[in-house]
């Protein structure tokens, strides 16, 4: 006898949803309120309308920071997603090395963001840092504090070291869930490693890969602590991403109206690009079975 379907279980999580919604909506409404007003202190506000949004969209400073963010996120995804898949494919599936590899992969994720920035700040110093001192001994003129290219390379390497493990763990969880029957059928058909990856492994890890891409895009696009600790946004403004520029505007300059407008636009950009990633990858996943038949 079939049991009657009931949605009463949702009542247990409803308080959590309400709490999260309240903690998210109230700050958002506050930022929206600031974005259409101006203040000169003393808690006095004056209506500004869409002035800050118009100023922001015509701001060269905002365009430069946005371009740096998009470039950084694109580089991070191009490096970390294939690298994470490659490492996950080559990790052991059975034996004593499995927990060892999983622990080693998880270690970078446990380090706080400000500590990661400090580690790489010391790591890159030419006098005491392993990376900086080694490059200096090899005759490479490396200085992330004064050279924009060195700063970018260091920030990218830092992020790859810190977050590739997340992609590895997500992909590995998808790979170990694939039944052995698929591999047995592939061996019988004489499929190569590339075809096994192309038609078995990649479609099966599509869901977790979608999560990995979305998480890494959002994290890389909102990156703040690591580059701020490492370079402070320099040299010049070459590593000043949107998040760093936003903090400078809101706290350093105390321009609450423009900073609030920038926060809203920043949020909408992340939301839009995440939706694009999700839509493209979901449609790709739906078309995949048809293509493999």
Strand content: under 5%
Q: Report the mean per-residue pLDDT as an integer.
A: 87
Q: Assign the CATH architecture.
A: Orthogonal Bundle
Radius of gyration: 24 Å
Report what the structure shows.
It is a single chain. With 293 residues, the protein is mainly α. The chain has one domain (60-292): MetI-like fold (Orthogonal Bundle). It contains 13 helices and 2 strands. A two-stranded antiparallel ribbon has the order 1-2. Helix 2 packs across helix 13, helix 3 packs across helix 7 and helix 4 packs across helix 7. The chain is globular, with a radius of gyration of 24 Å.
Task: Name the features.
mainly alpha, MetI-like fold, two-stranded antiparallel sheet, 293 residues, globular, disordered C terminus
Produce a short descriptive summary.
With 293 residues, the protein is mainly alpha-helical. Helices cover 74% and strands 2% of the residues. It has one domain (60-292): MetI-like fold.
List the helices and strands and how they pair.
Elements: H1 10-35, E1 37-39, E2 45-47, H2 51-57, H3 60-90, H4 97-110, H5 113-123, H6 130-137, H7 148-176, H8 180-189, H9 193-204, H10 206-221, H11 225-230, H12 242-252, H13 256-292
Antiparallel strand pairs: 1-2
Helix pairs in contact: 1-13, 2-13, 3-7, 3-10, 4-7, 7-10, 10-13, 12-13
